[in-house]
Design goal:
The chain is mostly helical and 99 residues long. It contains four helices and no strands.
């Protein structure tokens, strides 16, 4: 038995190293599965970043309408939406969405 192990020592070590490196290639902190998970997380974070940038740009635009050059049309739109005010001889209809 011992002579057989001595004779095939290089083969046994080679097989062990192949299994070890192939296992670590697929799993582990820097493996293939971890790479795929991190790539998906990066994609989700990029999409979230784009959404937040659009939201910030929209808020900056609305803020500029209220601060630098006062936009009376935008103020009228805000009053109509938030306070449900209308002009004289105008009928307002409130439609409730039941979700």
């Amino acid at each position: 038995m011992l002579t057989l192990i001595k004779r095939n020592f290089f083969l046994l070590i080679s097989i062990f190293l192949i299994f070890y490196f192939s296992f670590n290639l697929v799993s582990g902190e820097r493996g293939l599965f971890s790479y795929i998970e991190k790539k998906e997380l990066l994609s989700n974070l990029k999409n979230q970043e784009l959404t937040l940038i659009k939201y910030i740009n929209d808020m900056d635009h609305k803020n500029s309408l209220l601060t630098t050059n006062l936009d009376l049309d935008y103020i009228e739109t805000l009053i109509r939406e938030r306070f449900l005010f209308g002009k004289e001889d105008e009928t307002l209809y409130i439609i409730k969405n039941e979700k």
